[in-house]
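Reminder: ligand-aware prediction takes two inputs, not one.
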Amino acid sequence: MELANRRIVLGVTGGVAAYKAAVLARDLMARGASVQVVMTAAGQRFVGAETFQALTGQPVFSDAWDARIENRMPHIELSRRADVVLVAPASADFLARIAHGLCDDLLATLCLARDCPLLVAPAMNRQMWEHPATRRNVATLRDDGVGFIGPDSGVQACGETGEGRMLEPSDIAEHLCAHFTPKRFAGRRVLLTAGPTFEPIDPVRGITNLSSGKMGFALARALAFAGAKVTLVAGPTTLPTPFGTRRLDVTTAMQMHDAVMAEVGGADLFIGVAAVADWRVANASKSKLKKTAGGAPPDLQFALNPDILAAVASLPAAPYCVGFAAESEDLERNGQAKRAAKGVPLLCANIGHATFGRDDNELLLIDEAGLTRLERADKNTLAARLVLEIANRLEAAAPDRPKARKSRARRRGKHA
Ligand code: C5P
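Here is what comes back for the chain with cytidine-5'-monophosphate:
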């Protein structure tokens, strides 16, 4: 429950995307948040307050003089009870009103009265989004510290195509999870591998393994939540790209190796989560191998693939390296041997058949200080715990690097 104990005021303003706010309310609650909906009058033209009341189990407020709040100050009561105010959809009119500090309805008033962060997910026609008045209002709000989630571009309800669509509810919920994650990796660059590899035998056949990519993808997401700039080199998997991640798709171990070597410069952290094939077929056929009646099976020759993790760990300016080991028994002894063989400071051992394809896992971390057990949990929870463990070790090993990079970026920004 990534949003457990988080109290969110969800503001719904007038736009057709208001129907998606109902799905968003459900998603935030499914992640453990409590959701208090506040609607503008225009918002209620699109979706009835009863819908949100039924979904959230809380009364919906829209009137600044609502008698249900004892002291008749709902703007103060509601904003004091919130950890964050999220307005989704945020219409052009609403952005204009709060950019100017207007308090002409309950939602605008509580946005001014709040002492918690304000996030907005704009939704409007592309010309309204591009209009100089909206551009000015957005710039003002950004200067005031308001966080923008989206908008997205694509086909709009009006039939036009362009920027201004509200992000999908699940993407907005991911932003909320990121919002509440301490930024232990701010300024850090992280490179990961994940998933299986596929080694062709001929154009339609190949050798692969049962890795789903779920652990590596969950780690990429957790690192992005923690503020890292994440590049994920992914073997063949149908998983969606994790939040805040740059994804490079590869198929074979050789392609994964080449992609990692091209990207590793400047990385602070490398994590090898992929289940990389140890061998490739050296005599793969360019045309499909034909089965003939009574004929011999193909004579496959194998060549050893490069060990990507060991290659990165032995670079002269190697990033902090973390390896994974999928073992079938004796995690501790096999993990320790693998840590030494690969030359990595931290190795995460797990039981191969107890993690491949599953949504949960448990890990035994092995480093120079000894053993740390991370209990069985779903892979997102486990990834968040592992990210904290890695942050502690990385901060001890390389405390100064992000600062140096940040000040370089700041200097660059000044001249931009
Ligand atoms: O040797 P083994 O495959 O068990 O090692 C697992 C660890 O090494 C994982 O971190 C995996 O991503 C990495 N690895 C690699 N390149 C290979 C084989 C494994 O990066 N060719």
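Residues 193, 253, 272-274, 276, 305, 307-309, 323-325, 338 surround cytidine-5'-monophosphate (CB under 6 Å). DSSP finds 15 helices and 19 strands in the chain. We will return to this case in the review session.
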